[in-house]
């Protein structure tokens, strides 16, 4: 059992930079949790505290039901993979992978057996005799992963392990890593600022901002129901659209005015009558027509971007812009009129002051 429990974990640097602020998060045994957030939001600091490389100035950390807050890294039963490959160039792949096991003074035959198994898992078996200086970046990163998993830790911590690889290699290695971690069945925490990586890999994603976890949930849940407009604009490519509108009318006949158009609004917006709200809608949840559709939002195409599998349109509604996705055979043309129908159950409503979701649908 290696559940990880973070209870009010806080870290301040130089008495003023609150890098991690009161984080409350439980990572279930064998779960793959991704910490996602923009640069400087505190992901690495939080990870380093879980590893024992940084000491929290508030809160407790428990691994497998044991309070490890005051324990040094070597007594936490964790293994880490960092962004830089951190493999020894003067050692062979075999010796690199075996390094930690040798430090434990494990018997030779046992070391060989474990190293070979780890090498098979990361597909490095043919390279065991090579020096790591003779490997490609992707292969070196595999060595780093193998060196961590060979220790059979209860917790595997990975900090941006793919970020030094080129785009294509990242894509291949991402899927391999996902398969590997599923086979290992080890509790894993993975730090990244790449939202695609987070969505693709995690059983759950914890989105961080300014030292705090602002939302956690399955990738699809976080994508579909961002708890704040920050999460909606951070996750997804393109980011979620946000349109300003004013709440009009009253219960029973509540509407949100977007320029000339009035959209039916959910009852939960009644408390915001007379005020501005943000309508969040994703590019793939807007239907477009080039001929007049009654009750649709009238817009104008500004930019058409063919992206192979679909078109990405930038459209103008009143004085606001939004992005939408259409099929490649859609008759899109710059400056042409458009009629837009957002899918009603995909509408998300946010308070522009707090950025919190107020209602969905
Ligand atoms: P990145 O994706 O760029 O690595 P991050 O989300 O991992 O960012 P951290 O490295 O955890 O962010 O940093 C969080 C904040 O703490 C930043 O403002 C950073 O400047 C500050 N910080 C981190 N380490 C130290 C340190 N040793 N001394 C002082 N400030 C630090």
UniProtKB/TrEMBL annotation:
| UniProt xrefs under InterPro entries | AAA+_ATPase (IPR003593), ABC_transporter-like_ATP-bd (IPR003439), ABC_transporter-like_CS (IPR017871), ABC_transpr_MalK-like (IPR015855), ABC_transpr_MalK/UgpC-like (IPR047641), Mo/tungstate-bd_C_term_dom (IPR008995), NA-bd_OB-fold (IPR012340), OB_MalK-like (IPR040582)
Q: Which GO terms describe its cellular component?
A: ATP-binding cassette (ABC) transporter complex, substrate-binding subunit-containing
Q: What are the recorded Gene Ontology BP terms?
A: carbohydrate transport
Per the record, the domain of life is Bacteria
The cross-references to SMART domains, in alphabetical order and at most eight, read: AAA (SM00382)
Keywords of the record: ATP-binding, Cell membrane, Membrane, Nucleotide-binding, Translocase, Transport
What GO molecular-function term can you cite, just one?
Answer: ATP hydrolysis activity
> What protein am I looking at?
Glycerol-3-phosphate ABC transporter, ATP-binding protein UgpC
Q: Which organism is it from?
A: uncultured Thermomicrobiales bacterium
Its taxonomic path starts at: Bacteria, Pseudomonadati, Thermomicrobiota, Thermomicrobia, Thermomicrobiales
């Amino acid at each position: 059992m290696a559940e990880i429990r973070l209870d009010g974990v806080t870290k301040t640097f130089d008495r003023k930079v609150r890098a991690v602020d009161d984080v409350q998060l439980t990572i279930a045994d064998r779960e793959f949790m991704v910490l996602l957030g923009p640069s400087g939001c505190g992901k690495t600091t939080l990870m380093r505290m879980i590893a024992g490389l940084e000491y929290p100035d508030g809160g407790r950390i428990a691994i497998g039901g044991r309070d490890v807050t005051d324990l040094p890294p070597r007594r936490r039963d964790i293994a880490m993979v960092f962004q830089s490959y951190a493999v020894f160039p003067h050692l062979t792949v075999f010796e690199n992978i075996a390094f930690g096991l040798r430090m434990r003074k494990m018997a030779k035959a046992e070391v060989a057996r474990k190293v070979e198994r780890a090498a098979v898992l990361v597909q490095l078996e043919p390279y065991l005799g090579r020096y790591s200086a003779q490997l490609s970046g992707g292969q070196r990163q595999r060595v780093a992963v193998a060196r961590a998993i060979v220790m059979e830790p209860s917790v595997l911590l990975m900090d941006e392990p793919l970020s030094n690889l080129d785009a294509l290699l990242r894509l291949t290695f991402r899927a391999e890593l996902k398969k590997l971690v599923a086979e290992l069945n080890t509790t894993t925490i993975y730090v990244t600022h790449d939202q695609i990586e987070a969505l693709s890999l995690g059983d759950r994603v914890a989105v961080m901002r300014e030292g705090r976890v602002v939302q956690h949930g399955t990738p699809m849940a976080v994508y579909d129901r961002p708890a704040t407009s920050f999460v909606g604009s951070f996750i997804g490519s393109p980011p979620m659209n946000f349109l300003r509108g004013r709440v009009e009318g009253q219960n029973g006949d509540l509407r949100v005015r977007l320029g000339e158009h009035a959209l039916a609004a959910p009852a939960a917006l009644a408390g915001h009558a007379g005020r501005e709200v943000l309508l969040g809608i994703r590019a793939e949840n807007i239907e477009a027509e080039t001929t007049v559709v009654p009750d649709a939002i009238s817009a104008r195409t500004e930019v058409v971007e063919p992206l192979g599998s679909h078109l990405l349109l930038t459209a103008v509604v009143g004085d606001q812009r939004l992005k939408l996705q259409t099929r490649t055979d859609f008759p899109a043309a710059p400056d042409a009129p458009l009629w837009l129908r957002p899918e009603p159950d995909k509408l998300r409503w946010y308070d522009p002051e707090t950025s919190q979701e107020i209602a969905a649908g």
